[in-house]
Amino acid sequence: MEKVSVAIARQTESIGRKVILQGWVRTRRDSKGGFSFIELNDGSCFGNIQIIADGGLPNYESEIKRISTGTSVEVRGEVRESPAKGQATEVQAERVTVIGWADPETYPLQKKQHSFEYLRTIAHLRPRANTFGAVARVRNCVSRSIHNFFQEEGFIYLHSPIITASDCEGAGQMFRVTTLDPARVPMRGKEVDYSQDFFGRPTFLTVSGQLEAEVYACALGKVYTFGPTFRAENSNTSRHLAEFWMIEPEMAFFDLEDNMNLAEAFFKRLCRDVLEQCPEDMQFFVNRIDKTAISTLEGIVDSEFVRLSYTEAIGLLQKSGEKFEFPVEWGCDLQAEHERYLTEKKFQKPVILFDYPRTLKPFYMRVNDDKKTVRAMDVLVPRVGEIIGGSQREERLDVLEERMKEQGLDLESYWWYRDLRRFGTVPHSGFGLGLERAVQFITGMANIRDVIPFPRTPGNAEF
Ligand code: ATP
Ligand code: MN
User: Fold this and answer.
1) What local confidence, expressed as pLDDT, does residue 234 receive?
2) pLDDT 10s digits, 101-152
3) How much is the pLDDT for 110?
4) From the CA of 402, how far away is ligand 2's center (Å)?
5) 247: Cβ below 6 Å to ligand 1?
6) Which is the closest atom of ligand 1 to the Cα of 379?
7) Which domain holds residue 405?
8) Residue 79 in contact with residue 91, Cβ under 8 Å?
9) 235 CA distance to ligand 1 centroid (A)?
10) Ligand 1 pocket check for 231: Cβ under 6 Å
11) Is 387 in the pocket of ligand 1 (CB under 6 A)?
12) CB-side exposure of 196: number of CA atoms within 13 Å?
């Protein structure tokens, strides 16, 4: 007897094998013939394995007939060909041992369909529900695919710091990291005396690893970060989390065009790998969440993304004849309704917008010759909107410093970032992909809170 996963036991190659299975019961059904069917799941794949437990088993009356949804069990038996539809194999049990009971009166995750809102209140049990198992496996597949893609392309995986003293976006919205006692904050005059804080200066949770990635790209060529990222923005939307995972490649000697090519190839690769490696989970999303989940991904793999300058996009929006809530004029920030028009109505595929007005974008983006726009690019996809944001970075010290002053930044505290432009500066580019937005797009899940195991949003951090 050998311990195997349900995924292995479900394969026809396992027929005839004696196996030990361990998992959680999804359902138990008793047949008139005096035996029971147990649907067992262990998370290794979407499908369950059917266990046949005969009435002659010694604990049949005392235990097996009391097994209910959520009970953990160990099953020893032989894998057989299944006569039933929709499954290749089943297991004839020789022994069924109950490991842990789940009282059907109080177990919160019954067989019936629960709302996603309710399931968020039981985040410790929801991974046992079909949807969350499928999301977790797809998320894992995407994570592996991300590493595979960059490793195969010769990138170095960089671990950028989570605690930082620099604010990449030049805006607030950061979580402060401090060991000062909020009840007795040391003051120097009217200001907080951060010299007495742990790091001797104000520090925060990172909003982006980009600046650090630039440091390593300007030495090692091609690097990427993949780690937790924090934004204290108080936006209660279906696309924002306070804690999310971001992938940030940064490449020396890449211009904006190279950057867009990489982003497109990268995103297509993620979609292709999920189609290949998670067919069962994707079929579930088609059946239950979004009928177009698979065809959307197939479309992405085969399509060429539209590339449009911001200025062209404004023109299209103005000519569209649509009634937008937010009026469109050159210089305005694009709203979700504008992005949706472009990706869902006009082109029905991903759109890469580039060359945004300089006033809309951070100091580090390279200024174009027109002085009005910067070498920014956003990848927009149907339904989710912005999934990737990136740019070619400003490599000219004088222009960079002018931009920093323009945005009211303290040049001194960026001395090391400016040094990169002082010593051996090179054109370079990079972008950031939000992992959860990618998983949301791929699975068709409506709310970003349901594609991360333990979502952090304003007012929510219990689990
Ligand atoms: P948005 O305009 O949608 O708020 P952003 O422009 O602030 O996003 P960037 O700073 O460009 O986002 O970050 C790069 C990527 O990180 C985004 O394209 C998105 O995929 C993801 N991202 C940004 N903020 C969040 C968030 N609060 N929760 C989840 N993902 C996020
Ligand atoms: Mn952005």
Assistant:
1) 81
2) 999 999 999 877 899 999 999 999 999 999 999 999 999 999 999 999 999 9
3) 82
4) 22
5) no
6) 18
7) 127-171+207-450
8) yes
9) 12
10) yes
11) yes
12) 11
pTM: 0.96
The residue whose CA has the least distance to atom 9 of ligand 1 is 389
Looking at the fold, whether 145 and 90 belong to one and the same domain comes out as no
Domain CATH number, residue 291: 3.30.930.10
Both 425 and 291 in one domain: the answer is yes
Task: Give the pLDDT of residue 169.
Answer: 55
Report CA dihedral (85, 23, 41, 278) to the nearest 10 degrees. Answer: -120
- Calpha distance 132→276 (Å, rounded): 20
Single out the residue of 80, 165, 184 nearest to residue 417, CA to CA.
165
Q: How far is CA 182 from CA 141, 176, 200, in A?
A: 42, 12, 16
Q: Number of folded domains in the chain?
A: 2
3-state secondary structure 88-126: CEEEEEEEEEEEECCCCCCCCCCCCCCCHHHHHCCCCCH
> Is 186 inside any structural domain?
no
Q: Which residues surround ligand 2, an ion (CB under 5 A)?
A: 389
**pLDDT of 113:** 82
Token pair belonging to 1: 């007897």
- Does any ligand 1 atom lie closer than 6 A to the CB of residue 240? yes
Q: What is the CATH number of the domain that holds 92?
A: 2.40.50.140
The answer as to whether 92 is a domain residue is yes
Ligand 2 centre to CA of 432 (Å) is: 8
Q: Which two tokens stand for residue 330?
A: 């050159």
Compute the distance between CA of residue 159 and CA of residue 166 in angstroms, rounded to an integer.
Answer: 16
Phi-psi region of 213 (alpha: psi -120 to 50; beta: other; left: phi over 0): alpha
Cβ neighbors of 80 (< 8 A, separation 6 or more) are 15, 16, 89, 90, 91, 92
Judged on CB neighbours under 10 Å (0-12, 13-18, 19+), 182 is: exposed
244 C-beta closer than 6 A to ligand 1: yes
Residues of the chain under the 70 pLDDT cut: 167-172
Answer whether 96 contacts ligand 1 (Cβ < 6 A).
no
Single out the residue in 43, 65, 100 at which a domain terminates.
100
Indicate whether 144 and 61 sit together in one domain: no
Mutation test residue for ligand 1: of 168, 169, 244, 383, the one with most atoms within 8 Å of CB: 244
Tell how far the Cα of 354 is from the centroid of ligand 2, in angstroms.
12
- Strand order of the β-sheet with 428-434 is 156-157, 222-230, 243-252, 428-434, 385-392, 373-381, 351-357, 306-309
Decide: helix, strand or coil at residue 108. Answer: coil
